[in-house]
Specification:
mainly beta; Thrombin, subunit H; 2 domains; 6-stranded antiparallel β-barrel; globular
Length: about 350
């Protein structure tokens, strides 16, 4: 199966990948209630669509390999070398488009990192036609989430987050965004599956849905029937680039703490142990410990099996990475480990995750 992150719409239908993110809530709101098939989605659409925005970006990109534009017989000639000297550093402006939603009336908007992360200029279009420049508050590549802000003349319509942990397979959802530049579009469907791991990163935990999402929906909200954002459009499975009814969205349970950190400090700090780990039958086995890492300073060794973190059972390597990442750097935690048949409690002061690939 081939999947790809949901593309943004670009001129001539060249595609880029897109999703969305969420608000500065301090916690996950109340549970969503499963509903029967609604007679109409119109009341819900009228309530939530004013908070959904279109995002247009301008990005400076490399002009590519200029030698590819020369006939092969001219590439290693004085003419070819002069052509390379003059145009080899050429830069071009690329346009892109995605979606987002307002999470705070002051003008805070959630979208995907890959929509705005490298943009030189960002312009947000509201449903009433107003266009406003936006600036990036902060981004997170690991979850593909970004928080941007516009300065409006008054409070903007905003939507709240819902609790994605309460979503069940078969629940109705509404997707909104800017597919193929057609702003203000909505589609409906159901949650098809939970907990999808696409291999995109250590925090994969996507909701799968059959509501059609297409290039340009990137960063757009997925609503439950209470009008709460329970996910952000992120990726699709598509042989053609369009919707075939298999889409993936980042759940709010993952997005909310990211948005809170970006809102508070503009960047993300994650906890780090400095170990390579593998799944084992009764815990997580340490395969390697990096020198000078928090794990090394705490005395952890290859061959140790991690059983719990602060009393919470650790069953997979992925769950360990997520649990440690959620700990603020500098915080002390207690790992229960098994070493040569003995169970030990080891205090570890968690470090700052240095790179995307760190464990």
């Amino acid at each position: 199966m081939t999947w790809r992150r949901l593309p943004t719409r670009r001129p001539r239908l060249a595609v880029l990948f897109v999703t969305l993110l969420l608000s500065g809530c301090n916690g996950i709101p109340g549970t969503a209630v499963a509903r029967s098939t609604p007679e109409s989605f119109a009341p819900l659409v009228k309530r939530v669509l004013p908070a959904v925005v279109n995002i247009a970006v301008t990005e400076t990109v490399s002009g590519g390999d200029v030698l590819a534009e020369l006939p092969p017989e001219l590439r290693d000639t004085p003419l070819g070398r002069e052509f390379r000297r003059r145009f080899g550093n050429r830069r071009e402006q690329a346009m892109g488009a995605g979606s987002g939603f307002v999470v705070d009336p002051s003008g805070l908007i959630v979208t995907n990192n890959h929509v705005v992360g490298h943009a030189d200029r960002i312009q947000v279009s509201l449903t009433d036609g107003t266009r406003l420049p936006a600036r990036v508050i902060g981004t997170d590549e690991l979850t593909d989430v970004a928080l941007i802000k516009v300065q409006a003349s008054g409070p903007l319509p905003a939507v709240p987050f819902g609790d994605s942990r309460q979503v069940e397979v078969g629940d109705w959802v509404l997707a909104a965004g800017n597919p193929f530049g057609l702003g203000g579009s909505v589609t409906a469907g159901i949650i098809s599956a939970r907990g999808r791991d696409l291999g995109a990163g250590p925090f994969d935990n996507f909701l799968q849905l059959d509501a059609p999402i297409n290039p340009g929906n990137s960063g757009g909200p997925i609503f439950n029937m209470d009008g709460q954002v329970i996910a952000i459009s992120t990726a699709i499975v598509s042989p053609s680039g369009g919707s075939v009814g298999i889409g993936f969205a980042t759940p709010s349970e993952l997005i909310i703490p990211i948005i809170n950190q970006l809102r508070a400090s503009g960047h993300i700090e994650r906890g780090w142990l400095g170990v390579s780990v593998d799944d084992s039958q009764n815990g997580v086995n340490i395969a390697n410990v990096e020198r000078t890492s928090p794990a090394a300073r705490a005395g952890l060794r290859p061959g140790d099996t991690i059983l719990t973190l602060n009393g919470e059972r650790i069953e997979t390597a992925r769950s360990l990475i997520r649990a440690v990442a959620a700990v603020s750097p500098g915080t002390s935690v207690t790992l229960s480990i098994r070493r040569q048949g003995r169970q030990l409690d080891v205090p570890v002061t968690v470090g700052l995750r240095p790179t995307e690939g760190a464990g």
